[in-house]
Design a protein that fits this description.
2 helices; 91% helix
């Protein structure tokens, strides 16, 4: 479920970088994408940990 969100974020960043519109906004989106990626990794590890116990 988080994969489609990551793909959308990456797509928006690539489009913004190719067009060259608002480089600062692209950097903000990159940071948001990194935060979401880390959160999704943590959540997947937590759910895997619950399944083993």
């Amino acid at each position: 479920m988080a994969l489609w969100l990551i793909l959308i974020i990456v797509g928006v960043i690539v489009i913004m970088l190719v067009i060259g519109v608002a480089v600062e906004a692209a950097q903000i989106l990159i940071w948001i994408g990194i935060i979401i990626l880390v959160a999704s990794i943590i959540m997947s590890l937590v759910t895997r940990g619950r399944g083993r116990v």
